[in-house]
Amino acid sequence: MNRDEPSGPILRAAGLVKTHRPEGGAPVHAVRGVDLRIERGEFVAVTGPSGAGKSTLLHLLGGLDRPDSGSLWIDGRQVDSFSEARWAVLRRNHIGIVFQFFNLVSNLSVADNVELPALLAGRSPRQARTDRAELLEELGLAGKENCTPGELSGGEQQRVALARALVNSPSLLLADEPAGSLDSKGTREVLRLLARFHQRGQTILLVTHDARMASAADRVISFFDGQVVDDAHLGGGRSRPEAGVADVLKLKG
Amino acid sequence: MRLPLLALLVSGPAHGYELKQALENLLGSAYPQPNVGQIYVTLGRLEKTGLIAGEDVEQSDRPNKRIYRITEAGRETVDAWFEESTGEPRVRDEFFMKLALAPHTGTANQITLINKQRRHYLNTMRDLSKLAAGEDRDNRVAHLLIEGAMLHLQADLDWLERCQEELE
Ligand SMILES: Nc1ncnc2c1ncn2[C@@H]1O[C@H](COP(=O)(O)OP(=O)(O)OP(=O)(O)O)[C@@H](O)[C@H]1O
Ligand SMILES: [Mg+2]
Question: What pTM did the predictor assign?
Answer without folding.
Answer: 0.81
